[in-house]
Structure formats: structure tokens, C-alpha cells
Amino acid sequence: MLPNKNKLIRYLEEKMTNQDIASQHGVTFQKVQQLIKTNGLNANELRRVDKYIVYLHLIDGEVVYVGSGKWYRMRRSSTRRNLEHKSLMEKRKLQYKVVAEFDVLKEARLYEEKLILRYRSLGQAKYNFKYDGARDEISRRGYTSNRKRRSKTKGIEVLRYGKFYGSYNFNIDFAREISDEPEKLLSGISTIIHQKWKPEHGPLKGFEINIIDDFQS
Questions:
Q1: Which end of the chain is more exposed for a tag (fewer CB within 10 A), N or C?
Q2: Helix/strand number for the chain, H first, E second
Q3: Which domain of life is it from (predicted)?
Q4: How many domains does one find in the chain?
């Protein structure tokens, strides 16, 4: 059975990915996208994608991991280095909880550090790796918040099968709309823009992307 509008809103506010929702209801990723559009929902707004979150992974009420980052990191298993942790996520054995949201990444990381130390002192957070201090663990993750971005006066215009699909500030904004693993699409998007590649398979099939000068979001 498909989720109704209220349940869909709750899922998005809990920062569930489209694939999470699809798996829970036995439908396709694309069907969830269609439901969101049909119900007139702004998924980015409901997920508060502009915020940095601090989150917990739990099993039967016990904290097994503390993390931080953008909304999609909380439920993503592909970046986990501990195979047991990764397996539990893929088997949907964990509970997820957002405990704080911040406008600044540094503040999120500082709060994450405090929580790691707190839960480690209680014998929990076992999937946070052993370290000389939480700061050392967090610093090894390679956050990309300082990545160089396109000028604010430029954006991208996206067409699909020759029809206007949307305009976006950054490539990642478009990638997040069509995939729960947006980073994997960035190379392909860049190739479409700069080499006029026309993919015939995968999530980018049928898309044309052009840079817009003097873009107004």
C-alpha cells in the first residue's frame, strides 16, 4: 500500500531517502518521486537539506554509532567502513534518530565529538572507531565543505527528452533530486555538460544539461 500524504511528509521530515520509502512499501524509487510531486511536496524543504545534522544509529535503544553531516549521510550504508555496521544498515536492523541540526558544519562536528565521548564512556557507540580522541576520528573523514563551487551567477538548466525539467544552483542539487546517491552522478553530469554526452542508460538517461550565465535561483 502506498503511503498517504501525511505519512509521506513524516518520512521526509525523518530524512528518509526515496529508496528507503520505496523499499518499505514495495514500490520503485521512481514511484516515490512521482508521489512526492503528485502531493505537491517540497522534499528538500521537508528534509531541511541545507542543515548539518548530528544523528544516532541505535539497536534496541542502545547507541551504536554517532555521526554528522548532510541529511543523506544518516541512512547511507555505502560510506561505512565497518562491515558489521554496513550489513545491519543494509538489512534495516537499525533505528535512526536526528538529535540536532546546525547551520555550520564545524558546530555539528563539535557536538558530534561530545556525543561520541559521552556514549563511548557508557560503553556504547561501538561502531565509532577506536581513536586517541573524537577529533582525530572526525578529522579523518575528509569532509568536502571547502570544495570550490561554481560562481553564484551561474547555474544549470536541465532538459529531459528535449523538454524543460528544471534549473538548479549546483550540479549536486539536481543529482539529489534524481538519486539517493547523488555523488555517484557528479562525474556523469560534468561529462554531459562539458562533452555533450547523451547517456542511454541509468538515472541520467535522456537528460541534457547546460550552464546558465547570470542565473537567478
A1: N
A2: 9, 6
A3: Bacteria
A4: 3
